[in-house]
Every structure is written in C-alpha cells, then in structure tokens.
Specification:
The protein is mostly helical. It has one domain: Winged helix-like DNA-binding domain superfamily/Winged helix DNA-binding domain (Arc Repressor Mutant, subunit A, Orthogonal Bundle), CATH 1.10.10. It has 6 helices and 3 strands. The chain has a 3-stranded antiparallel sheet. Helix 5 crosses helix 6.
C-alpha cells in the first residue's frame, strides 16, 4: 500500500461529523481554545506579561482579597509556588500584599488598580469571544448551553458553582 493510500491516524482533536466525542474532550478543547484566544487578544492590547495562571489568582484576589496559603490550596500547588506566583504578579503591578486585619503576620493579597484593569480587559475579551460563539450558534443556544452547564455544576457541587481552578 502506498503511503498516500494508508489510512491516516486520527489526531486528538479530529472527529467525523456526527461523532460522539466525549464531552470532557470537547470541553477541554473549547477551554484551551478560549484561553489561547484570550491571551492572544490580551497581548494584542498590550498585556504581554500575563501568564495563564494569573487569571485564577486575579479572580480569587478580587473583593476583600485572599491569603497566599489559600491561593495554594485553590490552585493545588505548594505554598512556596503560590508565594512565587503572587510575588511575580506583585512585581508586575497586578497585586499587593497588605497585613491582615486580624493577624499582622499574615498578608492579604488584593488587586491593584492595574489588576482591576487587567481583570476588566479579560471580561471584555470573554464577552467578545462569547459573541463569536453567538454568531456561530445564536444567542438562545449559547444561553441554553450556559444554563445547562450551570445546572449540572450546581447539582454536582452542593447548589453553587465551585471556584475556578487549574486542571
């Protein structure tokens, strides 16, 4: 059999029309695509130093803030790795560490103005990416997808959405 006539192995992302590709694989591909597109658009807008794991910390640090040890637990990394991540984000100007009100030895990690601006840029880009899905599927289908995912996640996590964390 000539090389051109040999069947080509299916690549991980390829699926024939009507194939029942596992949802987990489709979600993983969709997630990776959205995150890659997000970071490309962030870089195009001047946010060139943002690493993918920054998003988890930005979300956790908004509002009243979070301690680095809690970031470690959320992300499933060591306290040392979380401290290094927070330090890198602090040096980049996205976070600050302040003494905790109830324990002066502890530090609370919160967003700086630049961190707030970055998070706003992320949310704006997510809205753009979602609009592109709407253009392909239509608003009702995207809203139904969101509702269905929310229902499943709440049903499997005690009635609430779990915190987002890296895989």
């Amino acid at each position: 059999m000539s090389p051109a006539a040999r069947p080509q192995p299916e690549r991980a992302g390829d699926a024939p029309a009507g194939d029942r590709t596992p949802l987990a694989r489709l979600f993983a591909i969709a997630y990776r695509t959205l995150i890659d597109d997000l970071h490309q658009r962030l870089a195009d807008r001047g946010w060139r130093d943002v690493r993918p794991n920054y998003g988890f910390v930005l979300l956790a640090a908004r509002g009243p803030g979070i301690q680095a040890s809690e970031i470690a637990a959320l992300m499933g990394i060591s306290k040392q790795a979380a401290s290094k991540l927070v330090e890198a984000m602090e040096q980049a100007g996205y976070l600050r560490r302040d003494p905790a009100a109830d324990d002066l030895r502890a530090k609370v990690v919160t967003l700086t103005d630049s961190g707030d601006e970055l998070l706003a840029a992320v949310e704006e880009i997510y809205a753009e990416l979602e609009d592109e899905w709407v253009a392909m599927l239509d608003r009702d289908r995207v809203d139904a997808l969101r509702a269905d995912l929310t229902t499943v996640l709440r049903a499997t996590h005690g009635g609430r959405l779990p915190p987002i964390r890296p895989v």
